[in-house]
Amino acid sequence: MHSQGLCKASGRCNAIGYTNFNLNNLVLRTDNSPQYIAKGFKHTARLLNIPHEYIVKQTPDDNGDIESFHNSLKTDYIRLNDLESYEDAKELIEYASNEYNPVSST
């Protein structure tokens, strides 16, 4: 799944497919990283009917919400844990995502 520390497009596609919440009105906003401009990623987003938009290059402030989440993820979870495998990281990120953005049962 990882190549030189970067997640391949197939990994991002799997992340899109993993959800336990309502996807209505979801718009996926990403930067222009290779995994997000890959044909496989774009194809999967279209198959799942997820609108996808890109931020303008060199403008990380346009994606402030996710930048803030990534900072919290690194500071509050990743740096505090000894992750020995991809599965460890996956479980921790899923836990952190659910804790950071709890899904309302109403």
UniProtKB/TrEMBL annotation:
Organism domain of life: Archaea
Q: How far does the signal peptide extend, from start to end residue? A: none
Give one GO biological process term.
DNA integration
What PROSITE patterns does this protein map onto? INTEGRASE
Q: Which residues cross the membrane?
A: none
Q: Which GO terms describe its molecular function?
A: nucleic acid binding
Any idea where the Integrase catalytic domain is?
27-106
> Which named protein is this?
Insertion element
Originating species: Thermoplasma volcanium (strain ATCC 51530 / DSM 4299 / JCM 9571 / NBRC 15438 / GSS1)
Q: What lineage, starting at the top, does this entry show?
A: Archaea, Methanobacteriati, Thermoplasmatota, Thermoplasmata, Thermoplasmatales
